[in-house]
Structure formats: structure tokens, C-alpha cells
DUF2116 family Zn-ribbon domain-containing protein (Candidatus Pedobacter colombiensis), 137 residues
Amino acid sequence: MTAKQETAQPEKKYCIYCEKEIHGRDGKKYCNVNCKNNFNARILAVKRAKENQAFPKTIAQLKKNYRILAAYITDERDHYIPTEELRKQGFDRQVCTGAFSTNYNRYYMLYKVCFDYKWKESNNGITASYDPSAKLR
């Protein structure tokens, strides 16, 4: 046999997600974009699950606050919700995803944010509204 005939066949590569054979350039890890996205989504889901285990009470309360606000607010206008109703449902004013203040006629108002919902507090309740841009602040 000559040296040209003895050249080894390249080692077959397999997708790290679905384990199908990969064709194409060297160094590919996935057979297609869907496998790449699914693999990375699985890794991200595991990371999120670990984060949820690290802060289970806070994450659970954020979800609860979000559901309570979503039940009351169906549009982008302001809705007043009495403190007693919020307390009965388990709403916690201290658990939020962010806060910001606005200057209105020389008065500063503090708004708290729970994802897409924002609210300002008063003695007897909160005034809340849906604001998709609130989570970006």
C-alpha cells in the first residue's frame, strides 16, 4: 500500500444534543440551529432552577405579587386596590423587581415595579397600572 491509500478516514462527529452524525466543517457541535437552541435552553433552565432554589421564598412571592396585580389590572389605566384586599390575597409590598421615582409638581413619587406592573403606595392601598416599559427602568 502506498502512503495515499493509508490515510485515515476522519473521525465521525455527533451532535451533543440529539447525537445524530454531523456533516460539514470541523469543530461543529450541533447538527442544526434547533439542536443548538434546545441544548442552550436546557442549560439555562437548569441555571434558573438553581437560582429558584437559592431564593425560593422571594421568587415565589414575586410570582404571587405578579398574579395578584394581573388579576386586578386589565388595561394600562390606573387601578386603586385597597390594602385590606391585598393583605387577604398575600400581596407583599416589600417584594418587587425594581423601583423608581418621578418628580411631579415638586413632589417626588416612588413607584415600585413587579415585572410589567408598577404601583405607588398610599396609606389605604396602592394605585397600580400595567406599564411594559417599567421593567426596563
User: Anything to note?
Assistant: The mean pLDDT is 87. Residues 14 and 21 are 4 Å apart (CA to CA). Residues 13-54 form one domain. The longest strand covers residues 107-114.
